[in-house]
Amino acid sequence: MRRRFQNVNFIDIVLWAMGLGILFLFIWGTIKGLQNPKYGPSDYANFVVLGIAQGSMYALIAIGYTLVYGVLFMINFAHGEFFMVGAMTSTVFIAIPLNETGFFDRQPLISLLLIMIVAMSTSMSIAVLTERIAYKPLRKAPRLVPLITAIGASFFWQYFFRGLFGSQVISFPEFAALKGSLSLFGLEILKSRLLVIIVTIVMLIGLQLFIMRTKTGKAIRAVAEDKDVAALMGIDVDRTITITFATGAAMAGVAAVLYTVVFRQVHYFMGFFPGLKAFTAAVLGGIGSIPGAAIGGLLLGIFESVGPSLFLEGLHIPAAHQLKDVIAFTMLVLVLIFRPQGIVGERLSEKKA
Amino acid sequence: MVKKLLLTLAIFVIASLALVACGGSEFVCEDALGCVTYEKGDPIRIASALVISGPNTDLGTDSQYGVEIAIDFQQEIMGHPIELQAEDDGCSAEGGQTAGQKIVADPSIVAVVGTSCSGAGVPMSKVISEAGYTMISPSNTAPSLTDPALHEAGYLRTAHNDKVQGKAMADYAYNVLGVRSAAAIHDGDPYTEGLARVFADSFEALGGTIVEFTAVNKGDTDMLPVLNAVAAAGPPEFIYYPVFTAEGGFLTKQAKEVPALQNTILAAADGMISDAAIEAVGDAGEGMYFSGPDLSFSGDTYEKFIAKYEEKYGKKPISVFHAHAFDAANMIFACIEKVGVDDNGALHIGRQALRDCLFATKDFQGITGNLTCDQYGDCADPKISVSQLQNGAYVRLWP
Amino acid sequence: MTKTTSQMLKEVIKLGLIAGLISLSLSVIGMVELFSKRELIAGIISLGQVFLFAPPIALGFMAAQKVAKEKKNLPLIFGAITGFFAAIPLIILIILESNFDLRQFLPNVSPALVDILTFSLDPIIGSLVLLVVTTVLGLAAAGMYLLPKHIQKPLANGIIYTLVIGLFSENLSERLRSFFGVGFVKILFDGKALNVVTAIILFILIVVLTVWWTRQGESVKARFTPKSAQEQKRNRRITLGAGVVFLLFLPLLLGTYLSEVTNNVLIYVLMGFGLNIVVGFAGLLDLGYVAFFAFGAYTMAILTSTSDLGVAGISFWLALPICVLVAVTAGVILGVPVLRMRGDYLAIVTLGFGEIIRILALSDLLKPYIGGAQGILQINKPIIFGIDLIKPDQFYYVVLTGVLIAAFVSWRLSESRLGRQWMALREDEDVAEAMGINLVATKLLAFGIGAGFSGLSGAIFASKLTSIFPHSFNLLVSINVLCLIIVGGMGSLPGVVVGALILVGLPELLREFAEYRMLMYGALLIVMMLSKPEGFWPSPVRKRELLAFKEQNDPTVVQEEG
Q1: Confidence of residue A353 (pLDDT cuts 50, 70, 90)
Q2: What is the distance between the alpha carbons of residues A20 and A5, in angstroms, rounded to a whole number?
Q3: For position B216, which CATH number holds?
């Protein structure tokens, strides 16, 4: 017993030392960075806004991971592809034809709504289909098995849509109304980024209400808590799981529309990295928690945007922006060393984790 | 029953072997690397090893289309149709090596168009050269491949060495546009990294200042942080980002959203000379500069080529190296015609002779210019042109 | 009664439409058109046709199966109905394409595709012909179902295996050519496809073999089943001896290209053995395993390269142990921060480590030391007894040696005290700790040894390629290794080999699928996991557990698997 105790202590010390080391580097870099005359306060404010916009998209995608993880304890590796299919389908079938007919410029709001509906419904149907074929039969299988089918589904959809729409980059038309920037609190904020932030806030509040106030939301929470008991209470567990997938995918669909509006091009491979980042964000915030996904996403976005210019250039690292993913993942490790359950994640019971 | 069948099969085998033994021709191959022989009517087989899977697919698929169209135009050489064996280089060293091994396992393949990516080209050029085959890459640009110390005997390319293109762009920017401060951005790909570095070095050698040399990652979408950092560093008068369409599209569109970069001249390289790229940059790309082969190709071969491309694949070219691949394939065809020996309808091609012929290529009228190969396999027209995107079309400005 | 019939009718129509939608999807993404030029049996059937018509056949068969349980007299009709409805989505596509230009949305819906679907006829007549063809195929599939088992099985085997051989005919013909010459190959094959005559002979051969096996198989098996312990021992020795001889002479049989493929498979097997220790034995889900592969490869490169980046210029054999040591150290160091993390937290953090290592290798920051994007060139190949092991059939022995060592170590470890501690850890960390297992040491040993195998694999990989680039060390490698150990059967050493053959070897051989390779890979992963969740060659312990688990929890799962 004593031996074990000593061991644990020693490891704790090593972990803390590692954590503090990384933290020290961050702080040292920040101090150095702040002394760097290259960037002024308005630059940093700008970086933060950009980070929030990018982070909002991460957050919306991360919700899909978190919801599914909440009910099934599985990493839905294919979730990034649900985002991709929404973006690609709505671009090819709605945005581009509408733009050619000129309707896009005449009625931007209706166009946006149409695009949103198509993106969300495509994402949802692909998610439900995937769940039905690749996950549902494996409910009782060992936990790594659905992870593998999820990886398989991810490849499958990527290359399926590649075959469908071709391998080239497809451009999304620009909304004339979203060109330029607005002056807000003394800051120049791009209109498109503002749209992202507003839509995300609305969606997040809507989702929270849906989960907390509606009957279906209650069912999702019940299933997340305990499937067997939920079934005994008369909840259709399978249906609820399907709804969970659909909800997550709908959020990915919204993120897809925001992405296309802001970045204006789509590609079959576009879901992979945002998916990975969103997953990181979900874990960072505490997987299984919706506020966690939001916070994780935002933090990740901000750090990615501010980090390279602030700490890395402060440390005189060349081509700092190349290393922004290193910042993202290092931050993840740092947070998990000190808070193994994520930022706002509740301590999961040992069996769940 | 089984025994009988096996017996029949055995007889079948022996009979066929005997047939082969009897059917020998009188031609004696004296080539140092051996000969490829095609019987009467058999197709001449060339292979391609381009990236046709994974995120860089556009690059390889486009080049493969170029080779296919070259075959369609050529139709036949000395009475033999031409057949393409398409392999995937995976845009990686291991993919290139495996594709190379697969190609050299097939003695009926006479030459190779490939690879797409320099990383795949390094090990593959070794495999191909050691086996006595010859390859022409349409899009490898890494200087190391034709470096005198590292060059493999069977390796040629129709793409520009990064050294040439990077220097030309620096020249144009400094001398013609008259800019004195510039930034370069690459995406971690060996091609873009090499090109950006050569540009930066040449620009500094001319007396300009590189205010920022930085990089993004493949798959990045939000370029505003890096562009803001570039803007904060100068802002430079000129930004060179020799990347591919996806990242290039993001960089171009988002550069227009940075107020400090409104007067900065944007420039990219041949990785972004394609209709897909024009579409990707949209209005934001208006006035942007591109270094690359002369794409205002004079003559109507290119027009015919484009027409065929659209008819066959239902879209405009998705990348730029179709032209280089087309030229590479045609160089091979021309040399086969030159060194092929007709033997009562059968065709013999000496591998060394073919290789020598390819290295001796001089003033070959390709659609990427006048190709002349040097002893280390660099065949591209040494003239790099700079064009500008005007009203949605590339217009050649220089030289 | 009528109600059930109409219900069934509805179901069958649904099946037909599903079949049609699958065919439609394969057409729309371009597979049918691209592979219509790739003939399996010359002049008879192309791969594109297989893609197009396999769904109605398969689902026609299923429809017949479904109906036959309830009504004995309807399967044929229902099979035909399935086939009929399978044509509907395709016909809609034909009509749409001939009236609108779908190509601007879907680049693969080309006139050539319509040409294939309509058998080069006028759209309307062609559609009708297509309808007839799928209906007949559905009917035939149902008819096939109705055949007695002893006829059905040989026939099905004959058709399927002949087509599979046709699919692999490219590699097959290459091998045959090197043994028997071009003339022989020309008799059997027509280009890449099987000759009609060859196909018929093959078909008959397979049918006969299947019939023979179903009649005599039992007695043959019985003859080779050991009766006594002594015999069993002898048999095992013979198998082992034969296995060793087989492995030693394999390159002669395979030739250079297939040896190259084998080497690639073995490199993954080596990594698989390592990850198997981490995930399979100790239950620590590691998604960043490629990091150690990179450590091994870069160490080898820096130590042996003759370029400017090489520092030591030592030989392959001298560098090898150093590479392993570096990888083990890296494994332990990267293992420390994740000691407290469990399950999916561990997964994402290790994934992060993998990405961090790749990006650092790529970065301008480390470019002066490890080459950045331009990689490291001119890495030495191993030399043994003065022979440069350049060719894949020579290099094979280097990889094989590594794999055999790793297999032996893994096998000994799995039976050892440490192995049991890992398994205890996998089952329940808390209980294991309570039983007095030192979690820290056990976990770090798993990470360290696993990393060591991966480092060995990476070192061999670097020397095989003679040049390395950061792009070779991406996340897909980690994912691939994880997939192969689970597809093979977690915790099982033969499973790793089987998994690598399926997930690395097969895609290599099917290179001609090119852009559709990853699509097939994804589909394959899903299908394999659905049909064999325990893997192809599960370890006995795991099998027992799974079976017990299934019986306890859900009887239907067992039925579905059956």
Answers
A1: very low
A2: 22
A3: 3.40.50.2300
- Asked if residue C529 belongs to a domain, the reply is no
Using CB atoms and an 8 Å cut-off, which of residues 206-265 of chain C contact chain B? 208-209, 212, 255-258, 260-261, 264
Residue A36: partners with Cβ closer than 8 Å, 6 or more residues away: A313, A314
Q: Which of A236, A242, A223, A219 is nearest to A132 (CA)?
A: A242
Q: What is the pLDDT of residues B32-76, one digit of tens each?
A: 898 998 988 889 999 999 998 777 788 888 999 999 999 999 988
Q: Which residue of A has its CA nearest to B281?
A: A171
For C275-310, the pLDDT digits (tens) are 999 999 998 999 999 999 999 999 999 999 988 888
Nearest-by-CA chain B residue for C258:
B102
pLDDT digits (tens, 9 = 90+) for B133-175: 999 999 898 888 999 988 999 999 998 888 889 999 999 999 9
pLDDT band with cut points at 50, 70 and 90 for residue C261: very high
Interface test with A, best of B61, B192, B226 (most A CBs within 10 A): B226
Neighbours of C540 (CB within 10 A): 9
Cβ of B119 within 8 Å of Cβ of C375? The answer is yes
Q: Report yes or no: B233 at the A interface, CB cutoff 8 Å.
A: yes
Q: What is the mean pLDDT of chain C?
A: 87
ipTM: 0.91
Count how many residues are written for chain C: 562
- Identify the residue among A57, A167, A175 best suited for mutation to test binding to B, counting B beta carbons within 10 A and taking the highest: A167
Pair C276, C395 in one domain = yes
Given A50, A265, A274, which is nearest B249 (Cβ)?
Answer: A265
Residue C54 domain-assigned? yes
Q: Give the number of domains in chain B.
A: 2
Which residue type is seen at B204? Answer: E
CB A158 within 8 A of CB A79: no
Could you list the residue range(s) of the whole structural domain that residue C80 is in? 1-146
| Separation in Å, CA of B362 to nearest CA in chain C | 31
The whole-angstrom separation of Cα A116 and Cα A245 is 18
Architecture of domain A60-338 in CATH? Orthogonal Bundle (1.10)
On whether both C32 and C179 belong to a single domain, the answer is no
pTM, 2 dp: 0.91
Burial per residue of B327-343, b for 16 or more beta-carbon CB atoms within 10 angstroms, e otherwise = bbbbbbbbbbeebbbee
Tell me, yes or no, whether C156 and C135 share the same domain.
Answer: no
Judge whether B8 lies within some domain: no
C-interface mutation test, from B12, B50, B102, B141, most C Cβ less than 10 A away: B102
pLDDT above 80 (res B6): no
* Contact: C514, B88; criterion CB under 8 Å: yes
Q: Indicate the residue of B52, B102, B315 with minimum beta-carbon distance to C107.
A: B315
